[in-house]
Amino acid sequence: MDTLSIDQLNELRLIIFDNAESFYKEAKCLHENGFYARAYLSAYYTMEELGKIPMIVGALGKLVNNNEVDWKKLNKRFRTHAKKIESEVHHHYVFGIDPSPFNKDVEWYQEKIKQVNEIYKKKNVSTYVDVTDGEIINPLKEISKDESKRVIEEAFDALKAHWASESISNKIIIPEQGATDDRAPLGRSG
Question: What is the DSSP letter of 101?
């Protein structure tokens, strides 16, 4: 990822959000039609895409405050599956469980962070035919209807957390129109 402007980062954030919502809708359609492995995969991608948004918002915050962005580091995190899931877990912890300063469910957060690598491995199981210890792994048989449903629900919870944070952060990150700052507010124009 090269150096991006505030407007480009904002556009990227919106496109990522739209893509995540599309993955969620696709997961539901796939699940309803019995494609549980692919539904799981699409739900997983919902969460991975959403994990990019806090990274982009962090860069936006730095630029707005005239601080330097480490584009190389951001690029690496943006393309690392585990980092995106970790980012989503953190975001969900802050905005999804109990969006208040009194949220004390640290155990939930710690458990989810421990599960990141397992979640990534399960995504691969839902995607690729493989052989492990002489056993053929068939994704179509590895993901159950219940497992697919559970991950779709987690994806929806992640979306709800982002809807909540968007209603807060857009007002905080960049000043509203008409303020003394000449930058446009986050969100779609028109």
Answer: T
pLDDT of residue 98: 58
Report helix angle 106-114 to 81-92, nearest 10: 170
- Span 40-52, pLDDT tens digits: 999 999 999 999 9
Strand 135-137 vs strand 130-132: parallel, antiparallel, or unpaired?
A: antiparallel
Mark out the alpha helices in the chain (DSSP H runs): 6-32, 36-64, 71-78, 81-92, 106-114, 116-125, 139-142, 145-173
CB atoms within 10 A of CB 89: 24
The predicted-structure confidence for 66-101, as pLDDT tens digits, reads as follows: 999 999 999 999 998 888 888 888 887 777 665 555
**What does the CA dihedral 162, 164, 169, 172 come to, rounded to 10 degrees?**
180
Which tokens sit at 106? 């640290």
SS3 185: coil
Task: Quote the distance between the C-alpha of residue 47 and its chain's center.
Answer: 4
* Separation CA 20–CA 73 (nearest Å): 23
List of residues 6+ apart from 14 with CB closer than 8 A: 187, 188
Give yes or no for residue 108 having a pLDDT over 60.
Answer: yes
Measure CA 29 to chain center.
20
